[in-house]
């Protein structure tokens, strides 16, 4: 419950306490007045010489005593209510304080997250600018890499999904990617090897047997590691693989992939090393990304690839899908490429 809601309850409880205290005081005053009246009536009864008048005065005094007793009981009841309201008021004061602290911490966390995202976006933009400047400066001495001409074969995409604790919708992402490709212009030119609950054995087997042009991973990661699953049917912590070990596994083939896409949190920190030694193109996420945003980006990216768009355009299309959906982190997906290639001229699916 929010601090404002607790404050509203506190205001109402304080009013109840004040009303109860007021009514307790009014009844105590009434009790005192009735007892004084009863005492005066008894004195008058003692002084009178008429027996009938005396009896009438005593009865009147008794009524006033009864009224005083009723007022005393009402005063005690209202005092107990005021005491209970005061205790509840104290409890609400503590809840307001706790809620305010929690909201302040949440706001500070949100501010830090926004600052972190801004810093990471700025860093990504600086790296991109530095890369463009470097390519421009060395354009005369570094000839563009001659990427192999597309063979008369399908684009092979190895899709690895790992969520050992069951907290990510990797199955939904794989379904959306397959649907996006099957709806594209050149769907017959794309072959998917989809491996849910992917283990490190799936990674090596997929690299050496399927020989993918694109390696796609969705799951948990950070700047230094990737989490695969173990051969365990129960939820478990997963198998932690270092970024270097993952890169070595992807590279352990005579035909390294052209693109590695890490659709996982904070994975953009790994992509520069990948393009330096493993693959000419890599995509990662600059910060934590929500499940639904990661799914939407991936589905639109592969739809564009299967429609014959370049890697650069497909990446921009995925970002645009997030922006059109009103997502704040549309800049989280980050594309990196080697100095001697151009993402805007590299097309992965070309009809014969």
Describe the structure.
The chain is rod-shaped and about 130 Å long. The chain has eight helices and eight strands, in the order ααβαβαβββαβαβααβ. The protein is α/β, with parallel strands linked by helices and 352 residues long. β3 and β4 (225-228) form a beta hairpin. α7 (291-306) packs across α8. The relative contact order is 0.10.
Q: How would you concisely characterize the structure shown here?
A:
With 352 residues, the protein is α/β, with parallel strands linked by helices.
Main β-sheet, in a few words?
A: 8 strands, mixed
Shape: rod-shaped
Q: Mind telling me which CATH architecture of the largest domain this is?
A: 3-Layer(aba) Sandwich
CATH class of the largest domain: Alpha Beta
- Share of residues in helices: 55-70%
How many β strands by DSSP?
8
